[in-house]
Amino acid sequence: MLFILSSVRHFLQRDARHFQIVFLSVFLLFGTLVLQWDVRWSRYTVLLGTSLAVQALFIKWKALPWNSLKSAAITGLGLCLLLQAGGLPTLALGATVAIAGKFLVRFRGKHVFNPANLGIVAAILLTGDAWVSPGQWGSGPALLFLVGSAGSMVLLRVGRIDTSMAFLITFAVLDALRSVFFLGWGLDVWAHRMTNGSLLLFAFFMITDPMTTPNAPRARIIWSMLIALIAFGTSTYAYVHTAPIWALFVLCAFTPLLDILMNGDRFSWLAGQEKPSASVPQEGTRPGSLLAIEQTMQ
Q1: pLDDT tens per residue, the chain (298 residues)?
Q2: How far apart are the first and last CA of the chain?
Q3: What single DSSP character describes residue 265?
Q4: CA 257 to mean position of chain CA atoms
Q5: Partner residues linked to 111 by β-bridges
Q6: In Å, what is the CA distance from 271 to each residue of 85, 161, 169, 267?
Protein backbone atom coordinates (compact mmCIF):
# COMPACT_ATOMS: atom_id res chain seq x y z
CA MET A 1 0.00 0.00 0.00
CA LEU A 2 2.79 2.40 0.90
CA PHE A 3 4.56 1.49 -2.35
CA ILE A 4 1.42 2.33 -4.35
CA LEU A 5 0.96 5.65 -2.56
CA SER A 6 4.62 6.49 -3.10
CA SER A 7 4.37 5.66 -6.80
CA VAL A 8 1.25 7.82 -7.18
CA ARG A 9 2.92 10.72 -5.38
CA HIS A 10 6.00 10.43 -7.58
CA PHE A 11 3.83 10.31 -10.71
CA LEU A 12 1.94 13.47 -9.70
CA GLN A 13 5.07 15.37 -8.71
CA ARG A 14 6.93 14.52 -11.90
CA ASP A 15 4.77 16.77 -14.06
CA ALA A 16 2.29 19.43 -12.84
CA ARG A 17 -0.03 18.49 -15.70
CA HIS A 18 -0.73 15.19 -13.96
CA PHE A 19 -2.31 17.13 -11.08
CA GLN A 20 -4.53 19.07 -13.44
CA ILE A 21 -5.67 16.02 -15.40
CA VAL A 22 -6.58 14.15 -12.21
CA PHE A 23 -8.48 17.01 -10.62
CA LEU A 24 -10.33 18.06 -13.77
CA SER A 25 -11.38 14.44 -14.25
CA VAL A 26 -12.65 14.38 -10.66
CA PHE A 27 -14.68 17.54 -11.30
CA LEU A 28 -16.18 15.98 -14.41
CA LEU A 29 -17.20 12.91 -12.43
CA PHE A 30 -18.54 15.12 -9.64
CA GLY A 31 -20.72 16.99 -12.11
CA THR A 32 -22.10 13.87 -13.75
CA LEU A 33 -22.58 11.72 -10.63
CA VAL A 34 -23.28 14.21 -7.84
CA LEU A 35 -24.74 17.25 -9.57
CA GLN A 36 -26.68 15.01 -11.97
CA TRP A 37 -25.81 16.85 -15.17
CA ASP A 38 -27.64 15.88 -18.33
CA VAL A 39 -24.75 13.79 -19.62
CA ARG A 40 -24.06 13.34 -23.31
CA TRP A 41 -21.05 11.09 -23.62
CA SER A 42 -20.80 11.95 -27.31
CA ARG A 43 -20.09 15.55 -26.26
CA TYR A 44 -17.19 14.52 -24.05
CA THR A 45 -15.86 12.17 -26.74
CA VAL A 46 -15.86 14.88 -29.41
CA LEU A 47 -14.23 17.51 -27.19
CA LEU A 48 -11.50 15.23 -25.84
CA GLY A 49 -11.00 13.34 -29.09
CA THR A 50 -10.72 16.48 -31.22
CA SER A 51 -8.34 18.14 -28.75
CA LEU A 52 -6.01 15.13 -28.76
CA ALA A 53 -6.27 14.63 -32.53
CA VAL A 54 -5.42 18.24 -33.38
CA GLN A 55 -2.53 18.22 -30.91
CA ALA A 56 -1.26 15.00 -32.51
CA LEU A 57 -1.32 16.65 -35.96
CA PHE A 58 0.83 19.51 -34.72
CA ILE A 59 3.14 17.06 -32.93
CA LYS A 60 3.74 15.26 -36.23
CA TRP A 61 4.09 18.51 -38.17
CA LYS A 62 6.58 20.11 -35.77
CA ALA A 63 8.25 16.89 -34.54
CA LEU A 64 7.36 17.61 -30.91
CA PRO A 65 7.43 15.25 -27.91
CA TRP A 66 4.32 13.10 -27.59
CA ASN A 67 3.99 13.93 -23.89
CA SER A 68 2.55 17.29 -24.96
CA LEU A 69 -0.72 15.37 -25.43
CA LYS A 70 -1.15 15.96 -21.69
CA SER A 71 -1.71 19.65 -22.38
CA ALA A 72 -4.37 18.79 -24.95
CA ALA A 73 -6.07 16.51 -22.42
CA ILE A 74 -6.21 19.41 -19.94
CA THR A 75 -7.76 21.67 -22.57
CA GLY A 76 -10.26 18.99 -23.58
CA LEU A 77 -11.32 18.36 -19.99
CA GLY A 78 -11.69 22.10 -19.41
CA LEU A 79 -13.98 22.33 -22.43
CA CYS A 80 -16.01 19.36 -21.16
CA LEU A 81 -16.62 21.25 -17.92
CA LEU A 82 -17.68 24.52 -19.51
CA LEU A 83 -18.58 24.46 -23.20
CA GLN A 84 -22.12 23.56 -24.27
CA ALA A 85 -23.43 23.46 -27.84
CA GLY A 86 -26.46 22.44 -29.86
CA GLY A 87 -24.47 20.24 -32.23
CA LEU A 88 -21.31 18.15 -32.23
CA PRO A 89 -19.67 20.11 -35.12
CA THR A 90 -19.72 23.23 -32.94
CA LEU A 91 -17.92 21.35 -30.17
CA ALA A 92 -15.35 20.07 -32.64
CA LEU A 93 -14.80 23.62 -33.89
CA GLY A 94 -14.24 24.92 -30.37
CA ALA A 95 -11.73 22.18 -29.56
CA THR A 96 -9.91 22.67 -32.87
CA VAL A 97 -9.53 26.43 -32.37
CA ALA A 98 -8.45 25.88 -28.77
CA ILE A 99 -5.53 23.62 -29.72
CA ALA A 100 -4.59 25.21 -33.04
CA GLY A 101 -4.48 28.64 -31.41
CA LYS A 102 -1.57 27.51 -29.25
CA PHE A 103 0.58 26.95 -32.31
CA LEU A 104 -0.70 29.67 -34.65
CA VAL A 105 -1.09 32.67 -32.32
CA ARG A 106 2.25 33.11 -30.57
CA PHE A 107 4.60 35.81 -29.34
CA ARG A 108 8.24 35.10 -28.55
CA GLY A 109 7.61 31.36 -28.60
CA LYS A 110 4.71 31.60 -26.12
CA HIS A 111 1.07 31.18 -27.09
CA VAL A 112 -1.03 34.23 -26.30
CA PHE A 113 -4.55 33.01 -25.52
CA ASN A 114 -5.71 30.54 -22.92
CA PRO A 115 -6.59 27.51 -25.09
CA ALA A 116 -9.92 26.51 -23.50
CA ASN A 117 -10.95 30.16 -23.21
CA LEU A 118 -10.13 30.78 -26.87
CA GLY A 119 -12.09 27.70 -27.95
CA ILE A 120 -15.16 28.77 -25.98
CA VAL A 121 -15.09 32.33 -27.32
CA ALA A 122 -14.57 31.12 -30.90
CA ALA A 123 -17.44 28.62 -30.70
CA ILE A 124 -19.81 31.26 -29.33
CA LEU A 125 -18.85 34.04 -31.75
CA LEU A 126 -18.49 31.96 -34.91
CA THR A 127 -21.56 29.75 -34.65
CA GLY A 128 -24.18 31.22 -32.35
CA ASP A 129 -24.79 27.60 -31.34
CA ALA A 130 -22.55 27.47 -28.25
CA TRP A 131 -22.89 28.72 -24.70
CA VAL A 132 -21.56 28.38 -21.16
CA SER A 133 -23.88 27.44 -18.29
CA PRO A 134 -22.54 28.98 -15.05
CA GLY A 135 -25.53 27.72 -13.08
CA GLN A 136 -24.77 24.04 -13.68
CA TRP A 137 -22.22 24.08 -10.85
CA GLY A 138 -24.45 25.54 -8.17
CA SER A 139 -22.81 27.04 -5.08
CA GLY A 140 -22.05 26.22 -1.47
CA PRO A 141 -19.29 25.43 1.04
CA ALA A 142 -18.81 21.90 -0.29
CA LEU A 143 -17.88 23.24 -3.72
CA LEU A 144 -15.65 25.86 -2.13
CA PHE A 145 -13.80 23.14 -0.23
CA LEU A 146 -13.53 20.77 -3.22
CA VAL A 147 -12.42 23.30 -5.81
CA GLY A 148 -10.36 25.34 -3.37
CA SER A 149 -8.44 22.36 -2.01
CA ALA A 150 -7.74 20.81 -5.39
CA GLY A 151 -6.97 24.15 -6.98
CA SER A 152 -4.56 25.15 -4.23
CA MET A 153 -2.60 21.93 -4.66
CA VAL A 154 -2.21 22.56 -8.38
CA LEU A 155 -1.42 26.25 -8.01
CA LEU A 156 1.20 25.72 -5.34
CA ARG A 157 2.79 23.17 -7.68
CA VAL A 158 2.89 25.56 -10.67
CA GLY A 159 3.51 28.75 -8.70
CA ARG A 160 0.33 30.59 -9.73
CA ILE A 161 -1.47 30.92 -6.40
CA ASP A 162 -0.85 34.69 -6.61
CA THR A 163 -2.93 34.86 -9.80
CA SER A 164 -5.91 33.09 -8.28
CA MET A 165 -5.81 35.01 -5.00
CA ALA A 166 -5.47 38.41 -6.69
CA PHE A 167 -8.54 37.69 -8.83
CA LEU A 168 -10.68 36.29 -6.01
CA ILE A 169 -9.77 38.97 -3.45
CA THR A 170 -10.40 41.80 -5.93
CA PHE A 171 -13.72 40.33 -7.05
CA ALA A 172 -14.78 39.63 -3.45
CA VAL A 173 -13.98 43.16 -2.28
CA LEU A 174 -15.82 44.77 -5.19
CA ASP A 175 -18.86 42.55 -4.68
CA ALA A 176 -18.91 43.17 -0.92
CA LEU A 177 -18.73 46.93 -1.41
CA ARG A 178 -21.72 46.84 -3.72
CA SER A 179 -23.84 44.08 -2.17
CA VAL A 180 -23.26 44.61 1.54
CA PHE A 181 -22.23 48.23 2.00
CA PHE A 182 -24.06 49.96 -0.86
CA LEU A 183 -27.22 47.87 -1.35
CA GLY A 184 -27.43 46.68 2.26
CA TRP A 185 -27.86 43.01 1.45
CA GLY A 186 -26.83 40.35 3.96
CA LEU A 187 -23.48 38.60 3.99
CA ASP A 188 -25.26 35.40 2.97
CA VAL A 189 -25.96 36.91 -0.47
CA TRP A 190 -22.31 37.82 -0.87
CA ALA A 191 -21.15 34.39 0.35
CA HIS A 192 -23.54 32.65 -2.06
CA ARG A 193 -22.04 34.48 -5.01
CA MET A 194 -18.46 33.93 -3.90
CA THR A 195 -18.99 30.16 -3.52
CA ASN A 196 -20.38 29.80 -7.03
CA GLY A 197 -18.81 26.74 -8.63
CA SER A 198 -18.21 28.35 -12.02
CA LEU A 199 -16.44 31.33 -10.46
CA LEU A 200 -14.23 29.06 -8.36
CA LEU A 201 -13.39 26.79 -11.29
CA PHE A 202 -12.47 29.84 -13.36
CA ALA A 203 -10.33 31.30 -10.56
CA PHE A 204 -8.42 28.12 -9.73
CA PHE A 205 -8.13 26.34 -13.09
CA MET A 206 -8.66 28.66 -16.05
CA ILE A 207 -7.21 32.05 -15.22
CA THR A 208 -4.14 30.36 -13.71
CA ASP A 209 -2.92 28.56 -16.85
CA PRO A 210 0.86 29.03 -16.35
CA MET A 211 1.59 29.09 -20.09
CA THR A 212 -0.61 32.14 -20.80
CA THR A 213 -0.34 34.19 -17.62
CA PRO A 214 2.29 36.97 -17.51
CA ASN A 215 5.75 35.79 -16.58
CA ALA A 216 6.52 38.31 -13.82
CA PRO A 217 4.68 37.95 -10.46
CA ARG A 218 3.85 41.67 -10.27
CA ALA A 219 2.46 41.59 -13.81
CA ARG A 220 0.29 38.56 -12.95
CA ILE A 221 -1.23 40.36 -9.97
CA ILE A 222 -2.06 43.47 -12.02
CA TRP A 223 -3.41 41.28 -14.81
CA SER A 224 -5.62 39.25 -12.46
CA MET A 225 -6.99 42.35 -10.73
CA LEU A 226 -7.92 43.87 -14.09
CA ILE A 227 -9.73 40.67 -15.09
CA ALA A 228 -11.67 40.78 -11.81
CA LEU A 229 -12.55 44.45 -12.34
CA ILE A 230 -13.80 43.87 -15.89
CA ALA A 231 -15.65 40.68 -14.92
CA PHE A 232 -17.35 42.36 -11.95
CA GLY A 233 -18.38 45.44 -13.91
CA THR A 234 -19.64 43.47 -16.88
CA SER A 235 -21.59 40.93 -14.82
CA THR A 236 -23.06 43.51 -12.44
CA TYR A 237 -24.01 46.32 -14.76
CA ALA A 238 -24.31 44.63 -18.17
CA TYR A 239 -25.77 41.38 -16.73
CA VAL A 240 -23.32 39.16 -18.62
CA HIS A 241 -23.25 35.96 -16.56
CA THR A 242 -20.19 34.63 -18.39
CA ALA A 243 -18.24 37.87 -17.85
CA PRO A 244 -15.02 36.20 -16.53
CA ILE A 245 -14.69 34.26 -19.80
CA TRP A 246 -14.78 37.45 -21.87
CA ALA A 247 -12.57 39.40 -19.46
CA LEU A 248 -9.88 36.71 -19.67
CA PHE A 249 -10.04 36.70 -23.46
CA VAL A 250 -9.51 40.47 -23.60
CA LEU A 251 -6.69 40.56 -21.04
CA CYS A 252 -4.81 37.65 -22.66
CA ALA A 253 -4.29 39.91 -25.67
CA PHE A 254 -2.28 42.24 -23.41
CA THR A 255 -0.11 39.53 -21.84
CA PRO A 256 2.71 39.99 -24.40
CA LEU A 257 2.85 43.69 -23.53
CA LEU A 258 3.13 42.92 -19.82
CA ASP A 259 5.88 40.39 -20.54
CA ILE A 260 7.81 43.10 -22.39
CA LEU A 261 7.33 45.72 -19.68
CA MET A 262 7.97 43.40 -16.71
CA ASN A 263 10.52 40.72 -17.44
CA GLY A 264 10.16 37.36 -15.69
CA ASP A 265 11.10 33.70 -16.03
CA ARG A 266 9.11 31.51 -18.39
CA PHE A 267 7.23 28.58 -16.86
CA SER A 268 8.27 24.97 -17.42
CA TRP A 269 5.87 22.07 -16.76
CA LEU A 270 8.57 19.52 -15.93
CA ALA A 271 10.02 19.58 -12.45
CA GLY A 272 13.66 20.61 -12.36
CA GLN A 273 13.75 21.67 -15.99
CA GLU A 274 15.51 24.92 -16.77
CA LYS A 275 13.07 27.80 -17.28
CA PRO A 276 13.90 29.87 -20.34
CA SER A 277 14.06 33.60 -19.85
CA ALA A 278 11.52 35.73 -21.68
CA SER A 279 14.34 38.01 -22.77
CA VAL A 280 16.12 35.31 -24.78
CA PRO A 281 15.72 35.96 -28.54
CA GLN A 282 13.55 33.20 -29.95
CA GLU A 283 14.74 33.45 -33.55
CA GLY A 284 18.21 32.29 -32.62
CA THR A 285 17.13 29.14 -30.82
CA ARG A 286 18.33 25.90 -32.36
CA PRO A 287 15.34 23.89 -33.68
CA GLY A 288 16.40 20.73 -31.90
CA SER A 289 17.33 22.25 -28.56
CA LEU A 290 15.49 21.62 -25.32
CA LEU A 291 14.44 25.27 -25.20
CA ALA A 292 12.91 25.14 -28.66
CA ILE A 293 10.98 21.97 -27.83
CA GLU A 294 9.68 23.41 -24.58
CA GLN A 295 8.55 26.62 -26.29
CA THR A 296 6.49 24.79 -28.91
CA MET A 297 5.28 21.63 -27.18
CA GLN A 298 2.45 23.24 -25.21
Answers
A1: 665 656 656 655 667 788 889 889 988 988 888 888 877 889 999 999 999 999 999 999 999 999 889 999 999 999 999 999 999 999 999 999 999 999 999 998 889 999 999 999 999 999 989 999 877 877 777 677 678 777 777 776 677 889 999 999 999 999 999 999 999 999 989 998 898 888 988 998 899 888 899 999 999 999 999 999 999 999 999 999 899 999 999 999 999 999 999 988 887 665 544 344 444 433 333 334 444 444 444 5
A2: 34
A3: B
A4: 20
A5: 106
A6: 37, 17, 29, 10
